[in-house]
Specification:
The protein has one domain. 72% of the residues lie in helices and 0% in strands. The protein has seven helices and no strands.
Length: 146
């Protein structure tokens, strides 16, 4: 798929930058909503990228030698920006809405899968857990079909 190749190339040549990458993921995700497997793979990819960017940001060493500092500064991963918050929020809410679409048609298995993906994404939002809490409450409020 050409758009997936664009995402891969952007990731490889963008030194860990997530701005363009997140927009490509949004574009491809929007196009792939009807193709469940592809859409779920994109969600997993977004979660991985957001987690990796967060780990890099949170793991900046506090005390290091000058050699270590040079290595840290030159590392493409250390130049990684966090996944754009508006993109994470959009992915989480769109994914949760898709879960509700499945719920409304009594498709419990895909509903649970998509809701759990939405919760994973919302957990990465840096909003003090607000979106995650809202989605978690709505998810817990669903009653499952026999």
């Amino acid at each position: 798929m050409p758009l997936q190749q664009i995402i891969n190339i952007t990731w490889q040549h963008n030194n860990g930058g997530t701005d363009k990458l997140s927009r490509w993921i949004r574009c491809l995700f929007s196009l792939a909503l009807s193709e469940r497997d592809i859409a779920v793979q994109l969600l997993d990819q977004a979660v991985t990228i957001a987690e990796d960017a967060r780990k890099v940001r949170d793991s900046t060493p506090s005390i290091c030698s000058s050699d270590d500092l040079i290595q840290v500064i030159s590392s493409p991963l250390q130049q990684s920006k966090p996944y754009p918050p508006e993109e994470l929020e959009w992915l989480a809410t769109t994914t949760f809405n898709r879960a509700i679409d499945f719920y409304c048609t009594s498709q419990d298995v895909p509903c649970r899968l998509w809701a759990e993906k939405a919760l994973a994404l919302s957990n990465l939002c840096e909003d003090g857990g607000a979106l995650h809490e809202v989605l978690q409450q709505k998810y817990q409020g669903l009653s499952w079909h026999p």
